[in-house]
Amino acid sequence: MTELWQLEFMRNALWAGLLVSLACGVVGCLVVVNRIVFISGGIAHAAYGGIGLAFFLGLAPLAGVLGFTLLCAVLMAWISLTRRERADTVIGVVWALGMALGVILLDLTPGYHPDLMSYLFGSILSVPRSDLYLTAGLDVVVLAVVGWGYHRFMALSFDQEFALSRGLAVKPLYFLLIILISLVVVMLIRVVGLLLVIALLTIPAYIAEGFCRSLKAMMALASLLCALFTLCGLALAVRLDLSSGPSIIMVAGAAFFLAQGWHALRRGKEPAGV
User: Fold this and answer.
1) Quick one: which of 149, 168, 202, 235 is 20 to 30 A from 270 by CA?
2) How far apart, in whole angstroms, are the C-alpha atoms of residue 81 and residue 176?
3) Are the C-beta atoms of 127 and 16 separated by less than 8 Å?
4) 14 touches 5 (CB < 8 A)
5) Digit-coded pLDDT (tens) for 139-190
6) Helices 170-192 and 8-34, interaxial angle, to 10°?
7) Is residue 235's pLDDT more than 50?
8) Sign of torsion, CA 92 62 189 109?
C-alpha cells in the first residue's frame, strides 16, 4: 500500500479527492438546506448528454460536459421557478432526454468508444494532472462566489420572504446557486461518476447538518467528511481491487447509517418531555 501511494496516478487521485471534497462539502450544504436534491440529480444525469456531445464533435470530454451541464442547469432553474406545480415532472423529462441524447450521440460517433463505465461510476485513479489544475480553478470559483454571497445564500436558504423584503434579488441568486451545483457535478464525475454524484453531494452535508448549529460549521464539517469518505473509499478500492466510485459511496453510506444510529440513541437517552 505504501508503495502504491508513491505512484503518480495515486497521488493524482488523492489530490483530486481532496480538491473535489472542498467544493462538494460547501455546495452540498446549500443543496441540502434548500431541499433541491432532485434538481441536483437531474443536472447530474442530464450531464451524460454532454459526454455524448463531446465525443460526437471531437471536443475534450470535460469541456463538452461543462457546457452542456451549465445549459441544462439554467433550464432546470428556470423551470423550477416558473412551473413550480409541474417542476418535478419537467425536470424528470430533461433528466431522461439528456441521458438519451448522450447515448444516441455516442452511437452515432464513428470509431472506438471510450470506457463509458468510467463516466457512469467514476474513475478517480485515471485523473490526469491537467484535470487537477482545472478542478483547483473551479474550487477557487466556487469558494469565491459562496464567500461573496454567503449571507445572501443563507437568507435564500432559510427565509426567502425575508430575503425578498430586504430587496435581495432572489431569482438571480437561485440561478447562481444552480450554476454552482452544475460546476460541482462536473468535478465529481471523474471521482464517483454521474450515477453516484448525488450521493456524495448530499450524504456528507446531511450528516454534518445533524452536528452543526451554523451553516459555516456545516460546510466545514461536510467538506472534511467528503474528503474522509473519498480517501477511505479509495484506499478500500485499492486494497480489495474494487471500483473506486462505488467504494467511496459505500463508505459514505455506512457513515450515514452510523450517524442515524447515533442520533437515535441520543434521542432514546433523553428524559421524557425534553
Assistant:
1) 202
2) 13
3) yes
4) yes
5) 899 999 999 988 888 888 877 776 777 777 888 888 999 899 988 888 888 7
6) 150
7) yes
8) positive
Domain boundaries, the chain: 4-111+149-257
Length of the chain: 274
Residue type, 1: M
The residue whose grid cell reads 474528503 is: 227
Widest CA span in the chain: 68
The three three-digit cell numbers of residue 217, written as one number:
460549521
CATH no., domain 4-111+149-257: 1.10.3470.10
Mention every residue, 6+ apart, whose C-beta is less than 8 A from residue 45: 95, 96, 98, 99, 194, 195
Name residue 270's amino acid.
E
Q: What does pLDDT average to over the chain?
A: 84
